Amino acid sequence: MLEKLEVKEAKRRGPKIIAGSPSVWQLKLNPIFMGTHGIVCIIDGEAEKVVGRIFKAAIKGEELSMFYKVKITEVVKTATGIMTNNNLIPACTLITGLPQETEEDVIKTIELMDDLKDFKSLTISLFFVLMDRLKNGNWFTMEQMNDLQMELPMECLRHDICWMKIMMKSYFKEKLYSKILSLSYWIFVKSIERKAKNVYTSLPFQKRFSHVGEAKI
User: Fold this and answer.
1) What is the DSSP letter of 202?
2) Are the C-beta atoms of residues 28 and 52 closer than 8 Å to each other?
3) Torsion of Cα atoms, 110 then 112 then 114 then 115, to 10°
4) Tens of pLDDT along 116-125?
């Protein structure tokens, strides 16, 4: 979009470009791109909560912070609640290993999982994947994870196993083939649970992640 003719024409008049989108955090890692395209401010999160005062400040010629991060916890909880109330089961993904990720970021994500424990949903923890302009960088791997980051997939797994057992009971309820299928699904879930316990309680894992191996699935 920034390469469009009308945008290039507008740049000649010295506008202040404010960007926001679900992937806008990537711009924070590419200051050269921001400088080239005249981006002076990026908003990560619920832009509607701050965009009004940011626009007013920009119009008045006031200095803007380069990066605004707005909490999205309430949006996630509200959306998940709406889906649950309408008998929809959201499948969510959480990403760890982002560039410049802090312990506070991981803690907040784990706290979000705790907030979602009463909502029927499935949540998968993924590693950050390098794409597009970042594809030549270093990939995040399990060897780079610290104890705190390892808590996140464990929380996701606990959440999923708990809700899968509940969902199976409601899904196969009053169906003629329920006994056969529910048994096979139950065995599948229990095998995942057993495999996870074996991994998390294994000696190599406990040596690598000092306190996480003691946690229960």
Assistant:
1) S
2) no
3) 170
4) 888 889 998 8
- Domain made up of 73-214: CATH architecture: 2-Layer Sandwich (3.30)
Query: Could you tell me where in the chain the CATH 3.30.750 domains are found?
Result: 73-214
Q: Are 161 and 192 in contact (CB under 8 A)?
A: yes
Neighbours of 167 (CB within 10 A): 17
- Whole-model pTM: value is 0.62
Residue 15, C-beta contacts closer than 8 angstroms, at least 6 positions apart: 38
Residue 13 has pLDDT above 80, yes or no: no
Helix 147-171 / helix 103-115 crossing angle, nearest 10 deg: 20
Amino acid identity for residue 76 in this structure = V
Quote the Cα angle for 92-93-95, to 5°: 155
More confident residue, 101 or 178: 101
Estimate the crossing angle of helix 178-200 against helix 147-171, to 10 degrees: 170
Tell me which amino acid residue 9 is: E
